[in-house]
Design a protein that fits this description.
It is a single chain. Helices cover about 45% and strands about 15% of the residues. By secondary structure, the protein is of the alpha/beta class. The two termini are about 35 Å apart.
């Protein structure tokens, strides 16, 4: 079986894919050693894939004066390759791709050059594109490398799409998954229904990016009558910035949730867990301030664990919002069963070596 066939099988089975943060020094230079340590943490935690050069990795890596897009892709790909060789286990390599069609094509070519399995194709910042232009952009990228679609919420640069858009999107050959991060039940339903009615539904894995509804997304069976036949789909996994912290416990939680997918009875404890996870996400991602401290928030958690040296972002003005540190303190105290501090403490020195 080819690697891409293995990757498609892994995606359809459902995995945890953290969106990788960027490790930098106090003077805002790339720190490859800390980046590798972070990735070792994620892979030893049990993730099935890693997403690089996505929002959590900071879009400014693409700025010409910073010039980190290619170096980050290279370092992260090499670290995954090293892990795979040592452990004989595929880690799905996903690279974020964004921008107008020409930029997206160039980024996809770089992702392919460095051995990435697929790209997460962002629609962000393209308000001047029609839906048909975005679909054409997707077709061009899909000719280069497998595509993971992305429904991005409007509050962070995305837009609302029609059901017909997702229906056409699902019909594109080499679209192998869709991440839904619309943060909206109606729009989420549009994506799932479009895939259910697509002749390619068996080829597309659904991943949640709805940080406000992670656990319930994974538990919910979506059922549709398609030409007289009942078709049931699930979100099989998640591709989430939220999952780049407390990742060992995330992987354990994910396996527990998966054991209840398709069952008629769901323990109430899982619904309680759902709200606890959402509460933590609110603190980490700074929902009180419209997500302005979201990257610094996950950095703060990783800093407390010793995985990062500081909460620095490439933009000096990007930091914790007023009151956000106290919110992180609060969820740490309220939900101690969700953190993996002891796991990190036990392995940090080997990840940093």
């Amino acid at each position: 079986m080819s690697r891409i066939d293995e990757v498609k099988k892994i995606l359809k089975a459902g995995i945890v894919i953290p969106a990788n943060p960027l490790a930098i020094t106090a003077d805002r230079k790339f720190n490859p050693d800390r980046q590798r340590a972070l990735m070792r943490y994620y892979m030893d935690s049990g993730v099935g894939g890693l997403a690089i050069a996505v929002h959590t990795t900071q879009f400014k890596i693409r700025d010409p004066e910073i010039g980190l897009f290619e170096p980050v892709l290279k370092v992260c790909s090499e670290e995954i390759d090293s892990y795979e060789k040592k452990h004989n286990r595929i880690i799905v390599k996903c690279a974020g791709v964004c921008g107008k069609t020409e930029q997206a094509i160039n980024e996809a070519l770089l992702a392919k050059k460095y051995g990435y399995d697929a790209v997460l194709l962002s629609p962000g910042g393209l308000a001047d594109y029609t839906e048909e232009q975005l679909l054409d952009r997707t077709r061009k990228i899909a000719e280069i490398i497998p595509v993971i679609g992305f429904y991005l919420q409007p509050s962070v640069g995305g837009r609302v799409f029609t059901y017909n858009y997702w229906s056409e999107f699902a019909s594109i050959d080499n679209v192998i998954a869709i991440k839904c991060a619309s943060f909206n039940r109606y729009q989420t339903l549009d994506v799932v229904r479009a895939v259910a009615f697509s002749p390619r539904r068996d080829d597309i894995a659904l991943f949640t990016g709805n940080d406000d509804n992670i656990v319930v997304d994974l538990l919910t069976p979506y059922k549709f009558n398609v030409d007289g036949e009942d078709v049931t789909l699930h979100f099989v996994g998640g591709l989430l910035g939220h999952w780049c912290v407390w990742t060992k416990k995330v992987c354990e939680m994910f396996e527990f949730i998966k054991s209840y997918q398709g069952k008629d009875e769901i323990p109430a404890t899982l619904l309680t867990l759902a709200e606890q996870v959402t509460d933590c996400n609110s603190a980490f991602f700074d929902t009180a301030n419209s997500f302005s401290g979201c990257i610094a928030g996950v950095h703060e958690v990783l800093r407390r664990q010793g995985l990062m040296e500081g909460i620095w972002c490439l933009d000096p003005d990007e930091t914790l919002s007023p009151g956000q540190k106290e919110e992180i303190d609060r969820v740490y105290k309220m939900y101690p069963h969700l953190n993996d501090d002891e796991f990190v403490k036990a392995h940090l020195s080997e990840w940093l070596s």
